[in-house]
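Researcher: Good morning. I'm working through a list of sequences from a screen, and I'd like to move beyond sequence-only analysis. For each chain I'm collecting a predicted structure so we can compare shapes side by side. This is the next one on the list. No need for commentary yet; just the structure.
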Amino acid sequence: MPSFKNGVANGFKLFSIRPGSIYSAIGIQNGDVITRINGFDINSPDKALEIYSRLKDAQNVDLQVDRRGQSMSYHYSIQ
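Model: Good morning. Structure tokens for this chain:
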């Protein structure tokens, strides 16, 4: 779901993260807002689709997440 801060889109808020899911296993929690992926702002559906297409061949994924007002960074290596 799109997330807004001060009336401006700032990312996508995640819901329905199930315990034991891959998202839970990599540290993502309900209510997290993903704001950047691999250095690209993810603030619109068009940007999300563009980033998704770039991730198909990615060896690494860097996420910038806003969790309850705190900025967090995650780095994942894909094998």
